[in-house]
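Thread: "does anyone have the structure for this chain?"

Original post by V.I.:
We have the sequence but no experimental structure in hand. Need at least a predicted one for the grant figures.
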Amino acid sequence: MRFKDKVVLVIGGNSGIGRAAAEGFAAEGAHVFLTGRSQATIDETVAAIPRAQGFRADIADIDSNDAVLAAIREAHGRIDILFVNAGIGAFAPVDEVTPEQWDEVHDVNLRGCFFAVQKALPLMGQSGSGGRESAIVITGSIGSVAAVPGNVMYAAAKAGLRAVARTLGAELIGRGIRVNMVSPGPTETPIINRSGLPPEAVAGMRTMMTDAIPMKRMGTPEEIARAVLFLASDEASFITGIDLYVDGGCVEL
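Reply from O.Q.:
Generated one for you, tokens below.
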């Protein structure tokens, strides 16, 4: 019960890693608020999680999180833990990348994530939660440091997000807010099927990724979520600014 009566907001909490984290927070006593773009998966997730509330929001639309923030302010007046997990994937060779594709990926994976944090800050930190420390965890990717052909849009956005996380950590430490990043390796989440590739290419990509992982398997959302919960908990009270790779050894070995 590390999160008993904590107020947790999971941006992108209706599937994959976000849903696994929301379930983990709730199982340990948190009041969970979550957002997502699909009302159907939001409803399904909320039905499965005790004390969870779901709100439809698109992180690329900066103002779309206003409703969930207003609900949290009215119900609790604070956010103890913010997990920014929303993201999209897109693969294309360098010669085929269009400005529209680039902007779509960066609007979600970089711009949207930054402004989601910015909008939540008035409810966080020592001033926002009665002197209690707050924690922000952001989903990164080993793609930010791995040169994978076809991954330039996603990699650039996640590398930028890593820089954002470090800067936030430095700026917010005096306000009682820890900021950390969890960077998954290849993980079995719905995002892999939303890459814009045909099914046969997705299957080939999954095989290629698995072969490149020292553990020779994909990660699960629950395995990534456990790292998120650790960094959000008081067990990580002396940790800020890190990028924790949860990747089966891809980067380290």
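V.I.: this helps a lot. The CA atoms of residues 78 and 129 lie 5 Å apart.
O.Q.: and The first strand starts at residue 7 and ends at 11.
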